[in-house]
Amino acid sequence: MAAWLVTVTGFLVLGGLAVVLGFEASPWVVWPPVASAVVVLVGAAMAVDYFGVARLRSRWRGFAGAHRQAWTRARALELRFYRQRKSGSPRTRSTARALLFAYAECDRLSDAREVVDYLGADTIYSGPGADAVADALRVIALAELGRGREASELLTAIERSSRRRRLPVVSYAGARLAQIEGRHRAAVERIDEALARSAIESGARRDLALLKARSLAVLGCAHDAAEVLSELAAHGARRAVEETTARAHERGEVALALAGRSALDQAAPYR
């Protein structure tokens, strides 16, 4: 809202100045330069997404799952973010948003402290929920950074809008926060509520199901977790199940690793 408020105020000031000077001099001398300035300023604002139009149109389609490419992209975006922040570039926010998403793709949200703080300062002007995808990822990052109270407050602020609460990315963030806080049954219920909706991108549905399997494994429902993973593997998400199983093994999440291995054995093999 602040961006639009600044823009409207600027238009009113320029318009008032043009009217006053138009009465003092010829309007044909004053108005063309003012109109040109308005066109240039609006064009520059649109070029850097000052009004947030691109963010409002964006939808969460799940994470790509290609961790090697995500690591490379995150490293490149890190360098760009620090450089742009130092120079005060107007593109810093869009870069920070892309970097936060890259961190999420390669499971590095615990390294996103500076990005989270930068985006948090930016929302002072726009308010939480204006960019639902970035704000939901900030909820997860804050929780993983040990700032659970801030994460809960941000999630509550986002969910004040019933429309935003139904977004898959907000459901994912709420379930992940519940997992981090040890409320795995609440996480499963939140995911089931989201999966019951039909209008969900396939990638988002996949990532919600993977998150559900993780909570089921912790709750001791290894068979149910294996069924969730087996269904994913049988419907085109075998690689995601393999990566989840491998990461579970590396982290010592034995129940999830065994459920993943069982699911891969049950699912149709590669052809």
Strand portion, in percent? under 5%
Mean pLDDT: 81
Radius of gyration: 23 Å
Strand elements, count: 0
Helix-strand sequence: HHHHHHHHHHHHHH
Enumerate the spans where pLDDT stays under 50 for 5 or more consecutive residues. Answer: 53-57
Separation of the first and last Cα atoms: 52 Å
Number of domains: 3
Shape: elongated
Descriptive report:
This protein has 271 residues and is mainly α. The chain has 3 domains: 54 residues; 117 residues; 72 residues, no CATH class. The chain is 78% helix and 0% strand. The chain has 14 helices and no strands. Helix 1 runs antiparallel to helix 2. The longest helix is centred in the last third of the chain and has 30 residues. It is elongated, with a radius of gyration of 23 Å.
Which properties best describe this structure?
0% strand, mainly alpha, elongated, 78% helix, 271 residues, 3 domains
Task: Tell me the layout of helices and strands.
Blueprint: H1 2-24, H2 27-47, H3 53-57, H4 67-87, H5 92-105, H6 113-126, H7 132-144, H8 148-158, H9 162-165, H10 168-180, H11 184-195, H12 202-218, H13 222-251, H14 254-266
Brief synopsis:
This protein has 14 helices and no strands.
